[in-house]
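Section 4.2 – Deliverable D4.2 (structural model, holo form)

The reporting period included a commitment to supply a predicted holo structure for the target in complex with iron/sulfur cluster. Inputs used:
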Amino acid sequence: MMEEKQGKYKFGMVIDLDKCTGCGTCMVACASENNVSVRTDESDKERSIAWMQLFKITNGKPFPQTEVSYFPRPCMHCHHKTPCVSVCPPTATQMDYETGIVSQIYTRCIGCRYCQAACPYHARYFNWYDGYAFIQPFPKGMERELSPEVSVRMRGVVEKCSFCHHRFMRAKTKAYAEGRREIEEGEYITACAEACPTQAITFGNLNNPKHQVTRLSKSPYAFRLLEKLGTEPKVYYLSTREWVREMADNYRPDQLQPVGVKKV
Ligand code: SF4
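Output (structure tokens):
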């Protein structure tokens, strides 16, 4: 197996599902921070965009044993053989080994949507409409609501969570201006992590053992989605509930039985 290059940073996230109340603040903060288009009719779920998506899962048991859990799903920024990067014909998506962030270059994207098909986490979205153009002209004052550091996407390209990469650039510029070569813990966090009212989302450098995100990612209750694929996502989840951890990898006891071997 080829060794992956390692940079100074490997940014990642830990989401504590036992703290998540499913309020959706992370989704709103993400959309607002990253100029994610809002359509007048959001009922067409096939064509709406959510870089941070919130799902609801249940243990499937009848009342009163029913339990539910919410889990927010950003891009996993897969570290190993990143599926979307491997298939992109014009190399419009790349992983930056200095940060571990998987980025999208909109002006290079040809809109073939191969990455969408390849992503096992459904984290990519196609722009059916020009970003924000469909609500042009902006109602008075709304044009000032766009984030100046994030480009607005055009129709025909794919987009996804960028771990608020512009915030990293901002933190790095500030550190350099102050004569530092490293950014400290907490100087760069994503909009969802900042906005979460229950502080269920922790963000930091997984390469730094002193960062809280690294400590949490090594918890016995930590897991990643579809671990068996070997994509090594940089988003970890925490839950003390076993049924939640089992669902993350589509775990089913009967599937663990090797093909052709009878159960005893
Ligand atoms: Fe690419 Fe999907 Fe992995 Fe994000 S989660 S890096 S979009 S394959």
